Records
---
Amino acid sequence: MLSASHTRARLAGQLAGLGVERGGVLMVHASLRAVGAVDGGVRAVSGALRDVLGPRGTLVVPAFTPENSDTSPHYRARVRGLGDREREAVRAAMPAFDPATTAAPSMGRLAETVRRSPGSVRSAHPQTSFAAAGPLAGHVVAGHRPDCHLGEESPLARLYELRAQILLLGTGFSSCTAFHLAEYRVPSPPRRTYRCVVGDSGVRRWWEYEDVALDDSDFAALGADFERSGRAPAVTAGSVGSAPSRLFRFPEAVGFATRWLPAHRHGGAGDCLSP
């Protein structure tokens, strides 16, 4: 016997029960597969989030684009086993980033739905942009410096200042981009070179820049320690649809990570899954 689909109203009730604040600012990382079947699909999930936040609430999602970079793990996986000519063909076909039109397929269907929703806005970083909808959306995405992936001149810092909530909707702490802000706040973080395709007055060109070497390889362990830290209520857990979910605040997560990273990391940085 097939199980019944979840409804938008039921999801909104579960989100409210988990602690999502009406009128608040919420960043979401979501796995719709984990949520399960929903009447109305991804639009109903997005609608449930907007319902519980209300008209004064702001919804934020990552809209990262590793597809336009040749320094990303995404690119290395795509060209693995190819010859020089084939690799060059892949690079030549990469479209220049356009915040108004460039899709973010690796971020999932919910992020794409929010990015494309009427009235949504997007930050201008060519690899690690964020999309937002709601009264504070413009403030969240403004001033995202192109040589600052996820640091003080990115939406993560604005979300920290706003004491935004973070919802892991069927995803683990390995997806928690907030922890990256802590990488910028530890003493003398390692740096590396990044390269991606951008548009410059209608001309496609490669742009190379240096930024903090992002590494999410230990975020699952970091998140587990954060959840066990006992600073009640650091993390609230519950189900939304069929998805095990967690809710917590930016300052608490970033503060814990800023203390945790220097004590647990030794040696060079690894790879972020995004840029």
Note: Strands lie at 25-30, 58-62, 121-122, 130-133, 165-169, 191-200, 203-212, 236-240, 243-249.
---
Amino acid sequence: MTTPAPLTDTHALHLHRARASTFFLQEAAADEIQDRLGMVNRSFTKPAIVTPFHQVWAGRMSDARICPDAETLALSEQAHDLVIHAMGLHWANDPVGQLIQCRRALKPDGLLIVACLGGRTLEELRSCLGQAEIAVSGGLSPRIAPMGEIRDLGALLQRAGLALPVADGLSLNVEYRDAWHLMRDLRAMGETNALASRQRTNGSRQLFEETTRLYRDHFSTQDGRIKATFEMVFLTGWAPDESQQKPLRPGSAKQRLADALAVPETPLPD
């Protein structure tokens, strides 16, 4: 078997993250995760956090083990009752492998919560860059990482062997002065292009001026600013345990649904 080409240039990604100075997306994800944990009727005593930005979590869960989202996670098997994978999965070359390692680090009936960027993220910039590049150079090059849809990301939980999987999303609609302002902010967040197949030279000024024009024409607010969408996807799953609820065996029901609803039953045609 041949090894597939990596999606992400991890060296470039590390360099981008090292210069990051703005963390509002990571802070928003951390706030949402902590709100969700507050709704779980359980106390966690051995948490672990997988994150590329340890400074965001350092003051939030003082007893947590914090490790980077490297290809091999520095987590011991069955050592934690809670693992949080925070805002790194969308850059992973092996997202299923990341989830499997998290599951192995969980004690039976331990909880995994994942936050990552989803497929609608930067949909406006993706559209404008694509149109601009076609107009300027007659072709397309990879400039924004492909990100998973909620349904596809939720399916990864099952592939990783997690029980009771749940996936949902939250859209953040942010306004910027113009497309240049947005791209500078992405650089400050450490979220600029780190695709392995990216062009190694910067695009022409004409490309970005055309992108800015298209963005202004199609995605402006009433006061002349531009809109940018960041979709955060949250995945929740549990390490399998005998104490968890199980689906009933097909055919084991003792009452017909039609009787319970007091409606006539209509047979389906053959």
Note: Strands lie at 47-50, 65-67, 80-86, 106-117, 163-176, 226-238.
---
Amino acid sequence: MILPINAERPVRVLQITDCHLGAESSETLLGLNVEASFVDVLEHALVREETPDLILVTGDIAGDPCAQAYQRFVYHLEKAFPEVPYVCIPGNHDVPTTMAAVFPEHSIPKVVELGDWLILLLDSTIPNKEHGDLSAQELDFVQKTLMHNPDKRAIICMHHQPVAVGCEWIDQYKVASAAQFKALLSEFDNVELVLWGHVHQAFETEVEGVRYMASPSTCIQFKPNSADFALDRLMPGYRWFELDNRGQLSTRIERINQRDYPIDYSSNGY
């Protein structure tokens, strides 16, 4: 997918992740109406940001992966940003075939080209498993794409974390082939960022010159640096990127204004 850009300004990308929508609009997750918080996040971005060039959705669109959940996701996203292209990768709670049936043109196009930038979209899911992995086919795709585009700056996206974020309970579900993935990236000097969802929290680190980032969920937030499951009291949010034609990337986290959501913060799981 090649998207037109305005060369007079940086490319704008909005990342949203881990919406966990259900079969009904009344569905809740630990007391939080996930559809209401998703709409709150979209409305915040609509007011706060300039129109993005791309919306990047990094998995767990659905908590109950039925067609109705994906249809309502499309309805709310396209209502808020009717002219903006978007791409979606699956999370461990999604069913890729159901996603593709609802929005086939938006499900894993693999590569998005935005001027001097490439966004590579990987599927780190394993059917019926919580943890992630990158297959030999996915790793081969990364290698060939980077090899054939040495003049492009690359962002690599997946759902699961390829590095530990410091939460023992969820780090057991990270990408199993993370060592092979990082070894592969060391062969190239045009990878700027590895980006994911899954962990419901903001996270940033750098490994061998590559930035690694996770982003908040549009619903509940997991407490950072927790050995066991714990919820944070931070509000739902998104991540915003601006990519310039000199290979520079800037990013920030945005969260909605404080809401009195009826979240069960005492829960020990979800």
Note: Residues 63 and 149 are 36 Å apart (CA to CA).
---
Amino acid sequence: MARVIQGKHDVVRTVVTVLLAQGHLLVEDVPGVGKTMLAKALGRSIDCTVQRIQFTPDLLPSDVTGVSVFNQDARTFEFRPGAVFANIVVGDEINRASPKTQSALLEAMAEGQVTVDGTTYRLEEPFMVMATQNPIEMEGTYPLPEAQRDRFMARIEVGYPDPAAELEMIGAHSERDPLSELQPVTDAVTVARLVQAVRRLHASPAVLQYVVDLATASRRHPRLRLGISPRAALHLVRAARAHAALAGRGHVLPDDIQRLAVPVLAHRVILSSDAQLAHETADEVIADILAGVPVPAGVR
């Protein structure tokens, strides 16, 4: 993936962390920084099924989940799967679709299944939604409700590359398409086994209590109108397990929690009116909470 997205090692590492933690990722940034390219690079790196959905105002929920079609010959209804039936689902500009279409992803993201006409269909594992949205052009868009933002394990910003990486990117992309040369380095079965191994990684009671203390502090913070949900605390622990595994450790440290706190928690909280008037950001408030909660010592 780093061959396609130059100079963004931390971004690529976060994407892989969310994949191994069996979560979903929201990529939010200005146009042209490689949001969709990042999602495509992940899909090309794994030998699995990949579907891309271009979210538009006229996109229907059945386009995402699938639809039952009547077969004249057999005199029965046949289910035709939608684009969500893939291991990696790339949702491009998700906030351009109507709330009804956006909500078609909720069951799939939360439970790994789709229910159509009273019948439930399981999705293949691993299953990951990588959605992108542009926070600048807000005309004709539908902001994601808090219930849906909470389904995303992490939110990241790709950001502008540094001059050296941008120079390398311009030279590489002008001569060829690095994405077309990307070869899979693993497959869906291996990733599914890695996901199960990550879930069994050791997290001590002290680390778990540290996460609960962070959640409690967020719910009492004067700058927040909505604190961290229990699902957010669970996602933070799962992401920390994956982060520790990528570091070659068999246990979670408080450093893993702190490293992932902003991308996992910041998009789930709602600032108070005073914080908005003071032009504070959710990232700054999460950093303030991290500074105020004691870190457990000697954790292993």
Note: The longest strand covers residues 66-71.
